[in-house]
């Protein structure tokens, strides 16, 4: 029987859209409302009446508008899109949506982990990267993060990890931040978290944009071919715009100036048609190689270096449509790693196994019962057919008298696939044989080798940022024992790292792990520490975010043009044209909104000012020629703007007349300060430097903290 999708997801959802334009105001039951301003009273000045069903209808709904926020990943932003499979991997999987040429609708939700729903986008935190594929065989959810490893190895520790990182229970401080005692207390007692802590303290945890993050399925999953043969797989999302971060000082300022920075960036770029794209990559591990590596592929605190198993790019995802309604879509979307389709199965990773229960359970609670999969955003694009019925807020109307199986009264329908000679979901027929134990495998006992590999693979500025991040976080810890314990862990990873962090905390790193750390580690591995492991590689290029020479793009980057009355139109237009050719955007920033007159005559409307748009909202800065320069000289906001950009290692370009402004600033000439007088084609020099993302050397040379 040929399987056909009756709707694309978009068409299916459109059936639920409500458009209020040209419509009469009604109650929830459709009764027209005569007056929406006044409650029903006994006389103009009299008491309100018990029979005001219109007021009750309105307030009863309002009183129930909030649902529980997600216990983790509460703060999120979503978008619709399409996934297109470009390569043939039918040898490994029979998953329909992974067949070459298939296009599948997706909904993606990005999130931070620790903060509440209204918290800042710019927290130092892991980012969630969840993708719901509406496949012809039902929904497949790839619920991943922007970091390829996790803090813990077994699901049993998850509530403890989250309780430790969330605001402390007595005073609910701090919000969306890991820089506090309970988090580092937990981490310093759990050496298995050392590797992930390195990633969380790296610039990966402060992305420039959701569009510029990698995504990882983290766990090892299984692909299954038609015959049931299994191949282990790791999933990767690689952003076409590259992987980029902001500076920590910038992140802190962004949290104040625009705590919706990532959400707005995603929304605006989709509206502008700058559709973000990611390539889907896979690393395949033949079943027989399961035990071949220095790490256990079932251990979620480990990744597989790309030098050991290359990432094969197999498809591309494009996000091209914003949700119509945040609550109905982004809030109500229910992800679950247990939503699997034929051709994909889970491995025995104990973290993944534990997730299979938790997501379904939490959705039942959060979305008020077992019918959440009937909400438009969660509904599979193939119609579900089964005998499940009733429950709160049931929307499907099941026809007929039969809701059981087997039956004869409905000719056995809905029938099991096998009865019709076709295949439904098949689990991998793995042979399992073992005693029931609560125990951790010793193959999970190496906690520092990959943390070291990660550190060794970072560029110098990235290493410096990791030192700064640990120093910042641990300085905020009040208990000196916790600080010492964590520095002792860092010393197991890299002596230089521990010494530098220790120096900022007045701690001489201990050579040995703290007694308490050892005590907890020995609960899982009685002979801990076990022999040191030799990793397959000492360095992995893919772990660094450094832009390679002659690579990088400035597409969708925002460049601030600092202008005043009398700015040269030609100077503005020439640079704007050069930037737009490369896909970047020029934004004019003035002293006030409204018209501004060019040197050559004519006006332009200024929509952004120093009041609303600080430097942290932009990727680079340009000061054009014109009479405007004299006015800028007397404008302290101008200098604050370029100083901040300079401090955050951004590229600054100055047209000829504007160079005189440099004398009044602390900006010193370096590779990222581009002057018109130095090059006949200074816009190209500006663009090429911007492609490098930041001038990180500036930090070392100028001692500007970023
Ligand atoms: Fe989650 N996680 N998680 N998690 N997780 C949730 O489900 C959980 C883990 C991740 O955009 C919750 O719907 C357990 C790893 C993302 O809606 C909850 C364990 C990874 C999202 C839950 C983990 C993730 C969640 C809370 C340890 C990366 C946001 C609300 C076994 C691979 C999904 C919800 C969205 C959300 C449980 C560990 C990613 C409570 C028990 C590892 C991206 O079910």
UniProtKB/TrEMBL annotation:
CDD domains registered for this protein in UniProt: GATase1_catalase (cd03132)
Reaction catalysis annotation: 2 H2O2 = O2 + 2 H2O
Leader sequence segment: none
GO MF terms, alphabetically ordered: catalase activity; heme binding; metal ion binding
InterPro entries: Catalase, Catalase_AS, Catalase_clade2, Catalase_clade2_helical, Catalase_core, Catalase_haem_BS, Catalase_immune_responsive, Catalase_large_C
The protein's required cofactors: heme
GO biological process, one term: hydrogen peroxide catabolic process
UniProt key word DNA damage: no
Gene3D superfamilies: 1.20.1370.20, 3.40.50.880, Catalase core domain (2.40.180.10)
EC code(s) of this entry: 1.11.1.6
Gene Ontology, cellular component aspect: cytosol
Region ranges (Disordered): 1-45
Comp. bias (Polar residues): 23-40
Residues at the active site: 73, 145
Residues engaged in binding heme: 70, 109, 158, 355, 359, 366
Keyword line: Heme, Hydrogen peroxide, Iron, Metal-binding, Oxidoreductase, Peroxidase
Listed Basic and acidic residues bias regions: 12-22
Residue intervals of the Catalase core domain: 26-413
Enzyme class: oxidoreductase
Known role: Decomposes hydrogen peroxide into water and oxygen; serves to protect cells from the toxic effects of hydrogen peroxide.
Annotated family: Belongs to the catalase family. HPII subfamily.
UniProt-recorded name of the protein: Catalase
